[in-house]
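User: Can you help me understand a structure? I only have the sequence.
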Amino acid sequence: MLRPKAVRHVAAAAAGAGRSRCPARQARALSSTAARSRPPPPRNHKAKDGTVDEPSSSSSSSSSSASTATATATPPPSTLYGYFPLTLPAGAPPAGPFAVDVPALRREFLCLQAAAHPDKQPPARKAAAEAASAAINHAYRTLADPLLRAQYLLALRGVDVAADESLRLDDSPAGGAGDGDLLMLVLDAHEVIEAAEAPRHLEPLRGENDDRIRRCDDALARAFAADDVDAAKREAVRLRYWVNIRNAIHEWEEGKPPVLQH
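Assistant: Let's start by predicting it. Here is the structure, written out as tokens:
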């Protein structure tokens, strides 16, 4: 699917700005790229007296250099990783790591959003800038979250963990994951949440669940580094359950039935 021009301009500028570690300089580079996307002035200007002003050799040289830079601009990102060349220079696993430096990713994201903000674009480019901003936001939200990141990487390999009903826990191998012990842990966690009468009753479960999430993150890192799709799929299913339990703990309110997703 072709990306809007604004997305392509932002992506190309982001890659070019990768040589700089200064977010402010990156933002200026992206802003200037957006400005260069406007149509250039006519090559020759005809004065009222009928004479034609030829461009100077220096301006001609600059125009030639700009044309060369445009012609050799970095193509649109092939994956969401391409939007963040400073934070994720190696790209998606297995070439790059599964783990992401989220604070660094957020700094680069804010820099990109500042440059692509629709209010900074001329009226004719506002719609394209809005599409670019939405694309950058989607890329950030996906890569900043380990579960969404794992699901995205598996989707690149043809596996839809979020939608495939066969990738759910069951106490028999036919259920896809076939992990009866994991199923019991999930059910036990649900019982603890349902029986809780105060937030302090959930603290032991919160600690155990956070440890499980960390172990899943580590296992996913190993699986994607080895490009082991089956192992990554298995751990993504586990992580989805632990994340749902974490959300249920976070959203727990006294006197209100817990919302437990399966």
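Now, to help you interpret it: The CA atoms of residues 15 and 85 lie 6 Å apart. The longest helix spans residues 203-225. Let me know which part you'd like to focus on.
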